[in-house]
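Box 3.1. Reading complex inputs
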Amino acid sequence: MTAPSTQTTKTASGIPALLKTAFINAVIALVLFSLMVGIRTEAGSEGQLTYWTRFGELASLVAAVFGGSIVIELLRQWIGPAGTEKLVPPALQKGMSLVGRYLAPALLIFTLLVPVIFYNQRYILDLAILVLTYVMLGWGLNVVVGLAGLLDLGYVAFYAVGAYSYALLATNFGWSFWICLPLAGILAAFWGVLLGFPVLRLRGDYLAIVTLAFGEIIRLVLINWQSLTGGPNGVSGIPRPTLFGIPLNNSDDGLAAKLGIEFSPTHRIVFLFYLILALALLTNWVTIRLRGLPIGRAWEALREDEVACRALGINTTTTKLTAFATGAMFGGFAGAFFATRQGFISPESFTFQESALVLAIVVLGGMGSQLGVALAALTMIGGFELFRGLETYRMLVFGWAMVLIMIWRPRGLVGHRAPTVYLKKAQAISSDLVKEGHG
Amino acid sequence: MTAASPLLAIRGLRAAYGKIEALKGVDVDINAGEIVALIGANGAGKSTLMMTIFGKPRARAGQILYEGKDITAVPTHEIAHLRIAQSPEGRRIFPRMSVAENLQMGADVTESTPAERESTLERVFALFPRLKERFTQRGGTLSGGEQQMLAIGRALMSRPRLLLLDEPSLGLAPLIARQIFDAIRTLNRQDGLTVLIVEQNANHALKLAHRGYVMVNGLITLAGSGAELLQRPEIRAAYLEGGRH
């Protein structure tokens, strides 16, 4: 609470000091730029030195430095000296908690209305489906990384298992999407357990390396097992999903014909949109429910302290395996959806970059926070599209944005962790008001 | 204390980390209703004994008998279900989880009814009122003493018969340490809880305990009542003089 006193001492000598700093900076800029910018030299036509002055540019640069240093100094005063807490006015705090409470429902309602609002904008609908796919992947990985604290760099493996499960079952046996979807989830969960067994004793960096290798192994198997997976050529002609057996095409049995409305390819896009939304919400609902149960609490406890877990009678083996299996299952669902949406899959879609992207979404969102992960997926995938106009600089700007977010919000966009156990008369203490300590 | 069969009997227990033998044949008896203190220097094997009771590390030889049954080979996670609770060294509370959730983690082990859980919670709050004040706060935001209270409270939530405490006074101010020891005494007297307490703070621990064991290099070198051990010159020289609070 020393902030106000330092603030007053600063503002007392505020404006003159401000101008002084800005003036000094401007002088330094003048000295530097007078030679670099103010005078331009060039070799003349006969090799002699010619030069001309550019005082206009010089003046504008110095002015920019003067103005810029005032702005920076003001910003610095507003943010306050490093290490001290900023006092947020109560009104603003109230407003922020109000936003926090209604942000998730508002987002959900908006998401439900996206196909209505953007019905004729195919690009936005496709982008929304892509964002939702990553929201679902993020929520799935959140179980493993955010809740159980097991750093998984090979999550894309389960995405691939789900996608290939659906693709192969559907193309070889002609099974419908709705039969294959649970199967894809079960198969992915099975692979999750298979990965889980050898890494039970590993944590942190070591676990990350093994999961990374696991992701690569799956991809290499997909490339090289040509007779089953088609190798690098992938699997094509994957059936589109149907609405309980009614195809969404222009045939006489199609949904449009049955409803007696004019066929439009957008119907299928809208259907896919709601399908992935439902799958993502299922993931979210299951995760939220599990968090309130002993198994979910055990996951979180495992993230915090494995030794304490054992002392409390938690079977760390089954706890880890269920976390891997649950996360993998959701990855498998998302994979099946990916396959049916694309109609074609190949190992190229399941590179390490995908794992890294999903992990970045989880970390950026704030480990363990459902809303945070959704916001991060929107930021990462949507933001990436937003910067498309920047072309070459897209990755650079994107990287900068990520670094800045992690500086401002080191615990992710939503660092607040909602508790799962309440006293009957719960008194709310915001976690932002108390600092973490280990003493 | 002449009970025919002790609640926990440790016979010729050996345990090792790789080639380094930490327990070289330890015999300890803990009778129901007793507080037993285990004292010794750093690296004597006190914590290892406590961990070996929980099966991590596994005993290489010897037996651990609990209520007359051999539990030497019982998996670690099932030992907590036998109503043995442990407050491990260094407290090890869950820092990002609330106090409420930390306590709930302890209760998750047992198949207790909500009413039982409620009454156990009330008991923990009566012993450590600070935990009630801090109920919704995250574990990591508590002070060291409060974290120790939480660690003991969490262990108590499983309604144990035998409580194993590893260095509960570690790193605590003397006043807070005394509060913790008082709470342990209350638990023992009022609730009949049996306690095995590992301590470096020999003075406090031996005053609290009915009986004590002294451990040196993986072996029990002395045993006796708490008061008796406190009078022994070798104990005073090794563990008390200069280290007295």
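In summary: Chain B has a mean pLDDT of 90.
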